[in-house]
Amino acid sequence: MGVFDIMGPVMIGPSSSHTAGAAKIGRLARLLFRDKIEQARIYFHGSFAETYHGHGTDKAVVGGLLGYKVDDTRIKKSLEIARQNGIDVKFYSIKMKDVHPNTVLIKLKKGDKELEVTGSSIGGGNIVVHNIDGYEVNIRGNYPTLWVLHRDKPGEVGIITSILGCYKLNIAFMRVFRKKRGTIGSSIIELDQDVDEDIIDHLQGMKDILKVRYIPPL
């Protein structure tokens, strides 16, 4: 056990679960969206829904959507800053099944472009994002991470890992999900090194790869 496990992250308070974790989920959603956010609809479940205003979870998520890290003092004024930037933000309480009590669903929009991200703050500033646009994932934001959507066919995962190997990237952890055999695979690849844009372009240019997103450590 390290000092971080005992003390938690350096952050804007009051709670590592309700603020630091929430800010990380918001920032991860921003990194996935990769565009100016015009509209954000934020749905809180469980403990988040009960206490989000008092604990500043609303400010934390929006701060993350603005790109702020957990120790950025601008999080305290994130709602005002979002309005100044023309972002239409609304909050809701919902009930979800089989999820952690500190769970948030974020829906982002710009014109016809939309993104949905569901993530949970599991304590000590740690998070798990477990769904992106209906695809199962498992992203914790601790490592440089690639999310790759690809056709579920023999050899496709091997092609992806071979490309990464050609660029001297070492895979720390990898998880592959799919809704049904032979449809779409959702691969989460956590790496020991950062990923350059030319590597992402190489992967994105492959025939059976549908989408590639890179998430640096949060």
Folded structure, characterized:
- The chain is an alpha+beta fold and 218 residues long.
- It folds into two domains: 115 residues, 60s Ribosomal Protein L30, Chain: A, CATH 3.30.1330.90; 71 residues, ACT domain (Alpha-Beta Plaits), CATH 3.30.70.260.
- Helices cover 31% and strands 34% of the residues.
- The chain has seven helices and ten strands.
- The protein has a six-stranded mixed β-sheet with strand order 2-1-3-4-5-6. A four-stranded antiparallel β-sheet has the order 8-9-7-10, with helices on both faces.
- Helix 2 runs parallel beside helix 4.
- The longest helix is centred in the first third of the chain and has 18 residues.
- The radius of gyration is 17 Å and the shape is globular.
- The N terminus is likely disordered.
Short description:
This protein folds into 2 domains: 115 residues, 60s Ribosomal Protein L30, Chain: A (2-Layer Sandwich); 71 residues, ACT domain (Alpha-Beta Plaits, 2-Layer Sandwich), CATH 3.30.70. Helices cover 31% and strands 34% of the residues.
Secondary structure elements and pairings:
Layout: H1 3-7, H2 16-33, E1 39-45, H3 46-55, H4 57-65, H5 78-84, E2 88-94, E3 103-110, E4 113-123, E5 126-132, E6 135-139, E7 145-151, H6 156-166, E8 171-178, E9 184-191, H7 197-204, E10 209-215
Parallel strand pairs: 1-2
Antiparallel strand pairs: 1-3, 3-4, 4-5, 5-6, 7-9, 7-10, 8-9
Helix pairs in contact: 2-4
Features:
218 residues, alpha+beta, Alpha-Beta Plaits, 2 domains, six-stranded mixed beta sheet, 10 strands, disordered N terminus
